[in-house]
Amino acid sequence: MTNNEELYTVGEVANAFGITVRTLHHWEQAGLIEPVYRSWSNYRLYTPDDLECIQHILVYRTTGMKLSEIKKVLSHPTSTREHLRRQRKRLLEERSRIDGMVVAVEKLLEQAMNNHKPTLEEIGEILGDPNYTEHQAEAQDAYGDTAGWAQYQDRTDNWGASDWEDSKQRFDAIDTKLADAVRRGVPTDSAEAAELVEEHRKAIGQFFDVTPEIQFQISRGYVADERFKRYYEERQPGLAQWLADAIAHATGHSTEIDESKA
Question: What gap in Å lies between CA 48 and CA 21, rounded to an integer?
């Protein structure tokens, strides 16, 4: 030791590395570090070389290496590469195990979310209808004593968020096809229009039994009810009237509802 060599107390070292004095003492007992200098009061003093050794210990510890292995690495620097290779292999295996656990937790979380019965507000968010709660109240007032409403309640009572999302996707898909038919000028009395009407009927039928006659009665509101009309017109101008006419043709009714009379 020279007079110019900088020395550090155990407290200074602990603060510098963000560890406890007890940890430094533990490492010393484990043979990882051996500060040879003492103060006049017999307190440990650490040299810059000691600090470098501590830095190495901290790095090895972050890899999950045991103290006994770190001691071997510090005692035999030539074996460092092999120790690190083995540690890398362990870490990769551990990462694979943890990744598997994360996947399992995500599946359980997804199941829990699907099993959760969403509130009316949450259903509205899924369907993109900010007034869903109000619309449900209106529907119950109008149809609450009908068999169709009872079926609707029974079929959707245990639906989770994913069920409502699937339902929305189903309606989005048929709406896209209907809008495309309008853009292409598909005649409302054509076979293609009839196929789309049937797909539309089945989409509604996931909630309650929908006969062609019931579908026709529902379709009367597509041009008579401004909210229904707005829903379809926002997707494709002319879609509300086209769909009402297509359903009328497919179900054997005349196209008695037109936009001018709505």
Answer: 17
**Domain presence at residue 115:** no
The tokens for 211 are 């006969």
Average pLDDT over residues 112-117: 69
> 247: closest CA among 227, 223, 230?
223
Domain-embedded: residue 99: no
Give the span between the Cα atoms of 119 and 161, in whole angstroms: 9
Which candidate, 90, 38, 140, 206, places its Cα nearest to that of 132? 140
Sign of CA dihedral 32, 36, 37, 38: positive
Strand stretches in 13-132, DSSP E: 37-38, 44-46
Q: How many domains does the chain have?
A: 2
Chain centroid to Cα 20, Å, comes to 41
Give the number of residues written for the chain.
262
Residue 149: which domain range? 120-261
How far is it between the farthest Cα atoms of the chain? Answer: 110
Q: If phi over 0 gives left and psi between -120 and 50 gives alpha, with beta otherwise, what is residue 185? A: left
pLDDT tens for 202-237 read 999 999 999 999 999 999 999 998 988 999 999 999
d(CA 209, CA 147): 9
What would the pLDDT profile of 120-134 be if each residue is shown by its tens digit? 898 889 888 888 898
Distance (Å, rounded) from C-alpha 70 to C-alpha 32? 7
Q: What is the pLDDT of residues 29-55, one digit of tens each?
A: 999 998 989 888 888 899 998 998 998
CATH number (domain holding residue 125)? 1.10.490.50
DSSP-derived secondary structure letter, 64: T
CATH of the domain at 66: 1.10.1660.10
